[in-house]
Amino acid sequence: MTAEVRTEASAQGGLRAWLLAETVTGPGQARAQKLYLGWRRFAANPLALLGLGIVLALVLLAVLAPLVATHDPFAQSLDRRLLPPSSSHLLGTDELGRDIWSRIAYGARITLMIVLLVALIAGPLGLLIGTVAGYLGGWVDVALMRLTDVFLSFPGLILALAFVAALGSGLENAILAIALTAWPPIARLARAETLTVRRADYIAAVRLAGASDLRIIVRHVMPICIPSVIIRITLNMAGIILTAAGLGFLGLGAQPPSPEWGAMLSTGRAYMLGSWWLAAMPGIAILVVSLGFNLLGDALRDVLDPRSS
Amino acid sequence: MNGPILTVEGLSVTFPSLQGKVPAVRGVSFTVGREKVGIVGESGSGKSMTGRAILKLTPPRAQVEARHLRFRGIDLVAASEREMRGIRGRRIGMILQDPKFALNPVQTVGRQIAEAFRIHRRASGTEAKQRTLAMLEAVRIRNPHRVYDLYPHEVSGGMGQRIMIAMMLIPEPDLLIADEPTSALDVTVRISVLRILDELVSERGLGLIFISHDLNLVATFCDRVLIMYAGRIVESLPAAELHAARHPYTRGLLESLPRIDERRARLPVLARDPAWLIA
Amino acid sequence: MSRAFVSVRDLRVSFGRGARLIHAVDGVSFDVAEGEVFGLVGESGCGKSTILRALSGLNPDWSGEATIAGRPVARTRDPAMARTVQMVFQDPYGSLHPKHTVETALMEPVRIHGLGDGPRRIERVLTEVGLSPAFRYRYPHQLSGGQRQRVAIARALILEPRVLLLDEPTSALDVSVQAEILNLLSDIRRTENLTYILVSHDFGVIAHMCDRVAVMNHGVILEELTVEALMQGRMRHAYTRELYEASAGYTRRLERSGEEADVAA
Prior knowledge:
The complex is a heterotrimer of chains A (about 300), B (about 280) and C (about 260). Chain A is mainly alpha-helical and about 300 residues long. Helix content of chain A is about 75%, strand content about 0%. In chain A, helix 6 runs parallel beside helix 9 (about 170-195) and helix 7 packs across helix 9. The radius of gyration of chain A is 24 Å and the shape is flat. Chain C is an alpha/beta fold. Helix content of chain C is about 30%, strand content about 25%.
């Protein structure tokens, strides 16, 4: 099998040969090869590319919002209120005459910020708690996992509502609240993964080399758990976006006039019968982005999960 | 019924991959009569894939080709998946290395064996149970009534493998394929499981394909040995003459085994000759 | 025989508690001289691997006394011991971190002990185990079973220990690869003047590698014999003889072997 790899790789020149070469000359090449093979598996799945495309589109939309927006997202003009989609207002206007397309474009920034911040808070927190509990075991495990259970025992949105009610409404508090509800499933997952690797011989070997517990957790256990944590977070993104939208919808998240998609959907509800586009456009945006993250998460699972390969 | 139970001619298994087709089995031909045929080889030699290809149990992406794959007059190449289901288990049994993966963990072993019997022969529940208890006795389980009600996790490795043998033999197949059936067992247990297998196979006049990496074991247990290397059979000879093998690969393998009765400063290391891939 | 380099007295390890208490190792004593290869042979569950895990410090719950190179083996993990005793595991597929390159795996002990000269050390151990330095940037999944086991041996050697604990180092490998690894282990022992404790279930491997061997069953040593006695079949215990004969292959003789327990423990 390896013989074929070699002959094929040498037949093609340049970068591809370097990426498939048998003789690796540096750590950079080793890593690049691994990424390349992962990418090839990822790219072989059309749904994966669709998911990645949607997520990249969200990022582009957020970054380029000032360029792609046709109007000022906050500019009200009462004589142009509730206009249906047309060439001057691609997705119509809302009850205050603001351009919905421009608001959705700027709203992408809020969605992206929520997604990133939640991932950056909940991911490392869940990973740390899960691996420490799983690796150390004993009373540390019991204490950390009971704490996790307490958080897990409430539905995410309810818990987020409680946090926001306590912290006061607003986008920052909504993000914090969502992050606090998002880490427990990740901690559980990381712990389960840690339990399967902590008895592995390669962990025994590094213990024999004299490594401290902290070093083992950070350098040896976490790299094993990170792929599944990334997969889990990506798959949870849809839920996070929906929770954020839900909080916005209930008036507890982003506050008017900010163009948060959930809040837009909520306002649109009142005009649903006469002007469907007010609710439908942000609704579609939420749906598409959630779908994109789900597809991406599924595809990442196929690429990253060692059990599937 | 004379003549071979199974005839294999020009059997190949290939796997498509990113880098082109990877052959696992390359044009293998042999026959099996009422005898114990050993297939020996190292990992990746294609010995397991050969066993699976006979039952059409290769992974879905594998491409299997054969000029002939004939079992008791049935053309296995042309057989549909439905016909294969009637053949697998009922007419050709298969024993794998670890019985833990082959047994259903939430059903008692007795019920599973009885079920195997009833799927293939129409029989009442009581008859199936009778036959199962008799079969458990045949594989030398001392207390069949108690073992009948045990769950797979409650039995030891050697017992599990005897249960597998019972389950595979109860539909009275003509051919048994055993893929490393004793590799997970301790040496003393291994011998007792092999004795049971040996007796039942000769008593019932079955054909046995015994796939193993263990040269010594195959040489002492089987009647005939096929040695596989890189997807091909490089040598085929009576088991008793294995130690007089001529192919350099077989010779090299035998030489590289550490011996209990002779101390050599270094073990001869097998030098692989690319010519073995073609010759 | 010279003064004991590894000395074990009345080693006991038990798992579980109450009614399910199992004495995995039940009072084992033996001595190993410097430069000697000492074998522990027995069937699965006889306690042979448990002894290695206790001596290496992987399992701190044991009682008795053990000294290696004149130092008592501590119950708590002792980083200094890492430079005296190292271990090679059975399964080369499970003993290398799947996300670490060979270089990372070999560098880790060097970093932990704050030793300088990492790249030179890596090159030295890789050469010693017969791998070209080009292997440094490979991941385990790009290596064959034999190559992985060589990396595992290199990792054990990089701290320049005096004693290697070998836990069935070749039983997961093909016979031709086994021969290469056994030769390698013999060579390294000579050049580095190492002491080996080799656990195996294979009498052939034991006879090839060891000077003396202890036969274990149910957590105790049944008998200790020299390799000459083993090769000539001069054993006192019936169980040893049974193992010895079983290792020669299959015999049709109908004499019943020791009846196996019907129900798993």
